[in-house]
Write a structure and sequence with these properties.
The chain is an all-beta fold. The strands form six sheets. It has a four-stranded mixed sheet with strand order 2-8-7-5, with no helix packed on it. A four-stranded mixed sheet has the order 9-14-13-11, with no helix packed on it. A hairpin with a 4-residue loop joins strand 7 and strand 8. It is rod-shaped and about 165 Å long.
Length: about 210
C-alpha cells in the first residue's frame, strides 16, 4: 500500500494600505484609522499579527512602521508594511511679561531690574526656550525690546516680546551763589557785582543754565 501526502507550500498573499500622513491637532500623538490589509490563501488564513498599531490606535508624532503578518493553516506566512506619519501642527505657547515703564535709578541714566523670563510650554515636548537672562539687567534710557522664542520637539516655534521703558524723572541740580548784603557803589544808587555760577549736575545730560533778573 502507498499513500500520497499533499503539502501546502504556497504562502498567503497580503496587501497593505498605502502609507499615510495625518495632521495632529492636539500637538502630541493622534488617533489614526486606516483600512485593514487584504489577504488570501489557497487553503485559508488562520491568523494575523500586527506590529506598530491597529486601526484607531494612538500614534506618536513622527514615523511609525506598521507591519502585518498572516499565517495559513500550513504555517506558511507573508507580511507587508506601511508608514503612519503623524505631523505636529500645534506650536508651543509662550507669554511674555507686560510692557513696563520704570524710573531711572537715582543718580544714574539707566535702571537695573530683575524679572522672571517666560518659559514655553507644549502639549508634547519642548526643545527649549531661548532669550536673554532676566537677573540684574541694566536698561538704558528709552525703550528696550526683549524677545523670547519657544521651540518644541517638532521644531515649531512661537515668539513673544515685551518692552521696558526707562524714564528720567530726576531734576538737574544747581546751587546758587550766596552774595549776602552788598553796598551801593560810591555816588550811585546801584552796585556792580561779580559772581561765579556754580557747576550744574544731572544724572543723564549736561544741563543748560539760564540766568534771568
Amino acid at each position: 500500500a502507498w499513500s500520497i501526502t499533499v503539502v501546502d507550500q504556497t504562502p498567503p498573499t497580503i496587501v497593505c494600505p498605502a502609507s499615510l500622513t495625518v495632521l495632529s491637532n492636539s500637538g502630541c500623538n493622534m488617533t489614526v484609522d486606516y483600512p485593514m490589509p487584504t489577504w488570501s490563501d489557497n487553503c485559508g488564513v488562520v491568523g494575523y499579527t500586527n506590529y506598530g498599531g491597529l486601526p484607531n490606535a494612538t500614534f506618536p508624532n513622527g514615523e511609525t512602521k506598521v507591519t502585518f503578518r498572516v499565517v495559513d493553516s500550513a504555517g506558511n506566512s507573508a507580511n507587508c508594511s506601511f508608514i503612519v506619519f503623524v505631523v505636529d501642527t500645534v506650536p508651543p505657547a509662550i507669554t511674555c511679561p507686560a510692557n513696563e515703564t520704570i524710573s531711572a535709578d537715582p543718580g544714574r541714566c539707566n535702571a537695573t531690574i530683575s524679572y522672571v523670563p517666560p518659559v514655553g510650554t507644549d502639549p508634547c515636548a519642548m526643545l527649549g526656550t531661548y532669550g536673554p537672562r532676566g537677573d540684574n539687567v541694566t536698561f538704558a534710557l528709552g525703550t528696550t525690546l526683549r524677545s523670547y522664542t519657544a521651540i518644541d520637539a517638532s521644531n515649531l516655534s512661537t515668539t513673544c516680546s515685551f518692552a521696558v521703558t526707562v524714564v528720567d524723572y530726576e531734576a538737574p541740580q544747581l546751587t546758587c551763589p550766596t552774595l549776602g548784603v552788598i553796598s551801593t557803589d560810591n555816588f550811585l544808587c546801584s552796585a556792580a557785582v561779580s559772581y561765579t555760577i556754580a557747576p550744574s549736575h544731572d544724572n543723564c545730560n549736561v544741563p543748560t543754565v539760564r540766568v534771568s533778573n
